[in-house]
Amino acid sequence: MYLFVNFLCSLALLRSAFAATADQWRGRSIYQIITDRYALPAGADLTACDPGQQTFCGGTWNTIKDNLDYIQNAGFTAIWISPVSQNYEGPRTPYGDAYHGYWIADATKLNDRFGTASDLKALSDEVHRRGMYLMVDVVVNNVMALSTTPDLSTFMFKDQSQYHPYCPIQWGNTTSEQNCWLGDTNVTLPDVNTQDPTVVSAYNSWISTLVSTFNIDGLRIDGVHVNTNFWPTFCAAAGVFCIGEVFDGDPSQAAEYQGPQALDSILNYPMYNALVDAFSIPGPQNMSALTDMISQLKKEFKDPGLLGNFLEDQDVPRWANISVDPQSLWNAMIFNFMSDGIPIVYYGQEQGMHGNSDPWNREPLWPSGYANTTTYELIQKLNQLRNFLVNGTSNWLTSSIDVLTESKEGIAFMKGDVITILTNIGSPPQNVSIAVYTPFESSLSTVDILTCKQYAVGSNGTVEVEYSKGGVPVILIPNTALFGSGICGQSAEVEAPNTAQGAVVSAAFGELRRPSSTVSALVVAVMMSVCGGFLSIAF
Ligand SMILES: *[C@@H]1O[C@H](CO)[C@@H](O)[C@H](O)[C@H]1NC(C)=O
Ligand SMILES: *[C@@H]1O[C@H](CO)[C@@H](O)[C@H](O)[C@H]1NC(C)=O
Ligand SMILES: *[C@@H]1O[C@H](CO)[C@@H](O)[C@H](O)[C@H]1NC(C)=O
Ligand SMILES: *[C@@H]1O[C@H](CO)[C@@H](O)[C@H](O)[C@H]1NC(C)=O
Ligand SMILES: *[C@@H]1O[C@H](CO)[C@@H](O)[C@H](O)[C@H]1NC(C)=O
Ligand SMILES: *[C@@H]1O[C@H](CO)[C@@H](O)[C@H](O)[C@H]1NC(C)=O
Ligand SMILES: *[C@@H]1O[C@H](CO)[C@@H](O)[C@H](O)[C@H]1NC(C)=O
Ligand SMILES: *[C@@H]1O[C@H](CO)[C@@H](O)[C@H](O)[C@H]1NC(C)=O
How confident is the model at residue 489 (pLDDT cuts 50, 70, 90)? Predict the structure, then answer.
């Protein structure tokens, strides 16, 4: 036992010496930041930022670095920041200024609006000091210009042959999506010719240098609808996890971008659409859309556990703009944390921001006062639970979700030993209930981690949730599986094993549905604390 523990501890240390892989990202949760909008320097005017003006509000890499407590206290284990490359600088465009960072001029230079190279390095160092990962947004597909015949001298690629000739994109036509230009004729987004070998090699050496210079752990890639065979060498050159933006709700189309022929992962737009259909109020409140999407994702994607789950980003309306009931948000958000995939929360969602799409969904965060809202506290609980399940159990992260029950009003699903029961009825109480047939033994004690209320499993393994107080979400876990989590009165530290605890452990074996997985979960929980500094304890 002792040798086994040591081996795993040193493995964990070894891994941390390398840039982060897809598997290391699988257990993370990400807070997405628009660099310009997250925080201001001390003393700045807190009232001056109007998203409708589409101009710079003053956030920088330094102000992110100085305000990481808010993100870490919410339990996030990674941040995703706006593109760091130099942007268009010039007269205001019909769509304002390049405050969002996506209007790339020369990718090889840094955006001095956001700080210096040493500021970015300091942010990266501070993120790592806190045990978190840094994900940087990159734009490869295009640069930005004001005409269809731009002066190329300010760009990274200066030769006409390194761009596709101008044509507006026809969506649905793959060749057109890959080779034509995003944007319109006011702000053109000249399409870089990613089939050109000089472009491929320059991009690969650029990304390799960027990642190693700033110790970046992962890339979020904007608009990945280029020739897919560009991506494997690009991401290999980066040497880190790559998650791409495929703005497509069709799972079979979107799935072509995940796998060894393309990228590690993509943002989960198909599931985003299904969550809107299932939970938003008003809306179709179509739970079948959700269960249907769960099975489609399992069928179409090589690895649904790596998909980036979100309810908001810089391109779609805030959830609260399309759904006014807070329970709809909380139920949908819990799906993203408790199902397969990497949860991503877009800054400001925790503060109830409710702007429409671009530019209204890029509000400054500071007027919120970074308050501990109900949603912020829910996210803390979800991250605490998920972080525990990731490291404290052996099977949660790698098992895939199974739907146990679906009805018009709700869904119950299971991942590892956790059962999540969600409803779309919203806040007003209703005389409905959801009966869930679980694989648990009758009379097993489970706890709802959101309320710390006990639920005993009924005869024949059934659990029933009723909504006489409104449509609240429920996350049930066998009490014994929370051992060592610090959740709902459980101790956060696993004490040195002694006979009393041994008795608790063996009692757990008798009650749980899958004794073998429970055994390994408990062993892992003990092991983690050993790695954390109890090495003198002999087993
Ligand atoms: C260009 O911008 C102007 C002013 O905002 C707008 O009226 C016009 O529709 C835009 N043109 C295109 C092609 O989108
Ligand atoms: C698809 O787009 C390409 C590139 O613009 C174009 O040459 C081709 O004609 C389009 N195909 C169809 C069916 O429209
Ligand atoms: C609900 O979603 C299912 C699955 O996507 C779909 O077949 C059905 O037509 C939808 N129902 C409504 C009322 O939109
Ligand atoms: C949606 O966003 C628009 C623009 O930001 C705003 O005028 C409207 O009030 C918002 N709706 C809700 C329900 O918040
Ligand atoms: C939120 O709660 C934390 C922990 O209790 C506290 O340190 C912080 O000051 C609170 N934030 C605000 C804005 O009240
Ligand atoms: C899990 O443990 C590893 C190694 O100690 C640590 O780096 C990581 O932050 C932990 N992950 C989570 C989600 O807590
Ligand atoms: C709830 O529904 C059940 C079954 O339809 C019915 O027997 C009961 O009276 C209802 N309760 C209330 C408070 O409406
Ligand atoms: C237990 O529940 C399952 C699923 O609902 C059902 O198929 C089975 O008949 C039940 N068994 C008993 C003994 O009630």
Answer: confident
**Residue 247 is part of a domain; what is its CATH number?**
3.20.20.80
Q: Evaluate the omega torsion of the peptide bond into residue 282 and state whether it is cis, within 30 degrees of 0.
A: yes
Residues 329 and 411 in one domain: no
Hey, which bits of 16-140 come out as E strands? 30-32, 78-81, 133-139
Average pLDDT over residues 395-412: 96
Phi, psi of 453, deg, nearest 5: -80, 140
- Residue 4 pLDDT > 90: no
Beta carbons of 378 and 349 less than 8 angstroms apart: no
* Whether the Cβ atoms of residue 453 and residue 460 lie closer than 8 Å to each other: no
User: Who's near 431: CB < 8 A, 6+ residues apart?
Assistant: 467, 468
Range of the domain at 229: 2-391
Distance from CA of residue 147 to its chain's centroid? Answer: 35
- CA dist 393 and 374 (Å) reads 28
Residue 89 near residue 98, CB atoms below 8 Å: yes
Q: Are residues 418 and 321 in the same domain?
A: no
Ligand 8 near 539 CB (within 6 A): no
Structure tokens that stand for 407 in this block? 């009805």
Ligand 3 proximity of 289 Cβ (cutoff 6 Å): yes
Nearest CA, atom 10, ligand 5: 372
Q: Which two tokens stand for residue 236?
A: 């290999």
The pick from 250, 252, 285, 288 for probing ligand 3's pocket by mutation, whose C-beta has the most ligand atoms within 8 angstroms, reads 288
Single residue among 482, 504, 526 that ends a domain in this structure: 482
- CATH code, domain carrying 467: 2.60.40.1180
pLDDT in tens, 89-120: 999 999 999 999 999 999 999 999 999 999 99
Q: Which residue among the candidates 222, 248, 312, 417 is catalytic per the annotation?
A: 222
